[in-house]
Each structure stands twice: as structure tokens, then as C-alpha cells.
């Protein structure tokens, strides 16, 4: 069974590629160059918000390096076919030609921008996306951030779903949720969510390879589609200034109450 992964260039993205390769399932790889891990704060921000932005993204980078290692696409380039592209090339003719030259039984996307319909039409029956959030409740962007902002860290997780023209709206194959541990900060949970999703994806691909039919559940609830415009640096005040990044501990102590998402599980 040939699997193509289309993914980003950050450590979390290359970690998933590494795990699939170690499992003997990765046939070819497309890597979209992503933005820097630590952005430059807007100079118009207040001193407080500027400090929070620097802290948030610096600690995210540190957490990812601990969890996933540095990661570099060069580790794959002598092992399997690799295409490295800029975002503007994702839906371009070169990518389409490359996919035709390297046909796969399964295409998985994770951390790339939205695929246009003419590229989607080239993909096999089993074309899936790994979404960093629990769909349908948290779709779109920053979807591992918002569960913390709403004081529901147990709603932080990943969704493996069928690719479709609806952003993060395809039929759901599996939800992955990480274990919450005392002392976890927001980025610890996000990293563990990625690790859990990578492990779960390998299991599901193994099931498919063995001939098991993979069921998918339509997304009936509208949930919420978060956009880049929804997030502001000032939202970080709640995470760091109000709770000092100890939302998991307070949740485990019962301070926020508890509700549970209704998860879809493939196994």
C-alpha cells in the first residue's frame, strides 16, 4: 500500500512523516514551506501583549523541539520521492504533475493550505486530512488554542477526516485526544495531541492495508469555523496573565467543571 503525505515544514509536520516512514507506510512526501515558528510581534502592541506573544511562540517552538526534534526534510530526500514547494505552488501544475507521477493508494494531508477542487480530483478514494482540532466543534485555525481559551482543555485533540472542499468539514474517520497530565501547559497538550494522532493514523492505515473497511461519520453539527481574524494577541492574557498557563491543573482539580466531546473512534 502506497501512502503519500502532503505536509508542512514545522517539526510537528515532519514528525508525522517520520512516524509513517518508521512504520513502513510512507511512499512519497510533499512538503509545503511554512512561515517561521516564532513571528515578530506587531510593534503597536502594548508591552504586556508583546511579551505574551514572544512567550507564547517561543514556548511553542521549545515544546515542539522537545517533542519532535529539529526535523528537516533532508532526512527523507535519499529514502523516498520528495517534493518541496512554496504555498503558492501547492495547487499548481507542478504539484499536480508530481502527484500523477507518484500515484498512491492513500493521500494524507497535514499542515498544508487548502487544496483546490481540481487537485482534489486527482487524489485516490482514500484521501484524508489530519486536522489539528476536534471537528466539528473546532474547525479552521488556532484550533488547539481555543479549547484552552474556553477552559476546556479536554476538548483539545486532532481529527482524521476525509478530504473535501469544505474546510475541515469532511466525514470523520477518527478523533485523537491526548492524555492530560499535571503540569501540562498549552503547548505540551498540543504536542501530545500530534503524537497521539500519528500513532492512531499508523493503526488505521494498518487496518486499511489488512483489508478492513474504514468507516466515516458525516459531520452533522455545524460547530464553529475559526478564522485568523478571530485570534488576537490580547487573547493570550487569559492563558498567561490570568491563569499562568496552568489551565490543565485547574481543570483536573475540577475548577471549571467538565463536559466531554462525543468522539468518533476507528478502533
Helix-strand sequence? EHEHEHEHEEHEEHEHH
Report the biggest beta sheet as strand number plus sense, adding barrel if it closes.
7 strands, mixed
Total DSSP helices: 8
Task: Assign a percent range to the helix content.
Answer: 25-40%
Radius of gyration, whole Å: 18 Å
- Amount of beta strand: 15-25%
Q: Mean pLDDT across all residues, rounded?
A: 96
Low-confidence stretches: none
The number of distinct β-strands equals 9
What structural category do the secondary elements indicate?
Answer: alpha/beta
For the termini, the CA-CA separation is: 20 Å
Shape: globular
Biggest sheet strand order reads: 3-2-1-4-5-7-8
Q: How would you characterize the overall build of this protein?
A:
The protein is an alpha/beta fold. 33% of the residues lie in helices and 16% in strands. The strands form 2 sheets. The chain has a 7-stranded mixed β-sheet. Strands 6-9 form a two-stranded parallel ribbon. Helix 1 runs parallel beside helix 2, helix 1 runs parallel beside helix 6 and helix 2 runs parallel beside helix 6. The longest helix has 24 residues. The chain starts with a strand and ends in a 15-residue tail after the last helix.
Amino acid at each position: 500500500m502506497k501512502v503519500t503525505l502532503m505536509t508542512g515544514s514545522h517539526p510537528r509536520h515532519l514528525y508525522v512523516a517520520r512516524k509513517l516512514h518508521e512504520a513502513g507506510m510512507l511512499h512519497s512526501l510533499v512538503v509545503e514551506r511554512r512561515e517561521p515558528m516564532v513571528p515578530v510581534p506587531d510593534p503597536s502592541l502594548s508591552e504586556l501583549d508583546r511579551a505574551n506573544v514572544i512567550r507564547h511562540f517561543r514556548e511553542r517552538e521549545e515544546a515542539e523541539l522537545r517533542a519532535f526534534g529539529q526535523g528537516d526534510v533532508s532526512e527523507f530526500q535519499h529514502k523516498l520521492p520528495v517534493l518541496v514547494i512554496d504555498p503558492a505552488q501547492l495547487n499548481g501544475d507542478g504539484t499536480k504533475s508530481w502527484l500523477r507521477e507518484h500515484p498512491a493508494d492513500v493521500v494524507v494531508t497535514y499542515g498544508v493550505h487548502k487544496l483546490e477542487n481540481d487537485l482534489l480530483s486527482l487524489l485516490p478514494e482514500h484521501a484524508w486530512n489530519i486536522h489539528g482540532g476536534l471537528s466539528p466543534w473546532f474547525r479552521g485555525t488556532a484550533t488547539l488554542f481555543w479549547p484552552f481559551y474556553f477552559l476546556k482543555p479536554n476538548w483539545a485533540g486532532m481529527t482524521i477526516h476525509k478530504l473535501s472542499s469544505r474546510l475541515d468539514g469532511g466525514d470523520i474517520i477518527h478523533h485523537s485526544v491526548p492524555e492530560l497530565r499535571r503540569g501540562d501547559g498549552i503547548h505540551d497538550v498540543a504536542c501530545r495531541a500530534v503524537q497521539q494522532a500519528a500513532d492512531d493514523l499508523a493503526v488505521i492505515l494498518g487496518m486499511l492495508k489488512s483489508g478492513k473497511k474504514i468507516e466515516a461519520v458525516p459531520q452533522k453539527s455545524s460547530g464553529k469555523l475559526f478564522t485568523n481574524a478571530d485570534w488576537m494577541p490580547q487573547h493570550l492574557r487569559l492563558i498567561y496573565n490570568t491563569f499562568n498557563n496552568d489551565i490543565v491543573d485547574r481543570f483536573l482539580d475540577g475548577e471549571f467543571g467538565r463536559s466531554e466531546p462525543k468522539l468518533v473512534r476507528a478502533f
